[in-house]
Specification:
single chain, 266 residues, mainly alpha, Leucine-rich Repeat Variant, 2 domains, Radial spoke head 14-like protein, ARM-type_fold, Armadillo
Length: 266
């Protein structure tokens, strides 16, 4: 009867504080893919407990944590690793633990992973991290790379929307990295995207850039006010609201006021 309760997709877990270190020890032994997958499944289960978060970041007493495993060759293992990190980034306490770890650099390398599901999980982690000011600040160095991903237009629409949301949060924290990488021009191009979700996120990111004077001036220089006025008729209310936000910020400078006046006088 007891045997029927054993989940073959999970590795056996030790009792109490020994549970996390034991699973990391098993992973460090580099077992075959099936055993490795079972250990990662059990580790993900444990991370639903906030008290386990610090241990999963540091790897118990090993000091390695998931950093050791997040850049593996096997696609299924990379996907499970990124899923584990995604779970750990789902609450504020977990986000803080992730930010205090050494996991962000190897995690950022997975933005170029050949697996689309792995990249999607990573982008979900990044988006959640930016819900904290410290998270948005920590990810500012990734802004140029994220913008390059948007320019390449190779990602699926969900990932593009995630990238735009991350850029938006980072830019509200500090718009300079995006502005320095021609962010206004890029976002202006995306404003006409066929996807409502992407238009919404692009308009929000542009609003973040238009808070500062440099962003307002670039909106005018790129002649984006007519495009934004057109979005006031968008089928999506949030797109309209975000477009209004950009317009309101922009018209606070003389150039923006003149551009808006000329637009309505046509």
């Amino acid at each position: 009867m007891a045997a029927s309760l054993i989940d073959p997709s999970r590795a056996p877990v030790a009792f109490g504080r020994r549970a996390v270190p034991q699973l990391f020890e098993e992973l460090q032994q580099r077992p075959e893919a099936a055993r490795r997958h079972r250990a990662l499944n059990s580790l993900c289960d444990l991370m639903h407990d906030p008290e386990r978060v610090y241990q999963t970041v540091t790897g118990g007493q090993s000091g390695a944590g998931l950093t050791v495993f997040v850049l593996q060759d096997k696609e299924t293992v990379r996907q499970r690793d990124s899923e584990a990190v995604r779970q750990r980034g789902s609450e504020a306490v977990r986000q803080q633990a992730l930010l205090s770890s050494s996991l962000l650099p190897p995690l950022s390398q997975l933005l170029d992973d050949p697996s689309s599901s792995c990249r999607r999980s990573v982008h979900r982690v990044l988006k959640r991290l930016t819900l904290l000011p410290a998270g948005a600040d920590a990810l500012l160095t990734l802004v140029p790379k994220l913008m390059l991903k948007l320019r390449q237009e190779k990602e699926e629409e969900e990932v593009q929307a995630l990238i735009l949301s991350t850029l938006s949060s980072c830019s509200y924290q500090d718009p300079r990295p995006a502005l320095a990488n021609d962010g206004v021009s890029l976002l202006g191009h995306i404003l006409s995207h066929r996807s409502t979700n992407i238009r919404r996120e692009a308009a929000d990111a542009l609003m973040a850039l238009s808070v500062c004077r440099d962003g307002k001036e670039q909106v005018c220089e790129q002649n984006l006010l007519p495009v934004l006025v057109g979005l006031l008729q968008d089928e999506d209310l949030e797109v309209q609201v975000n477009a209004v936000g950009v317009i309101m910020f922009t018209v606070t400078i003389t150039t923006g006021t003149h551009s808006e006046t000329n637009q309505y006088n046509r």
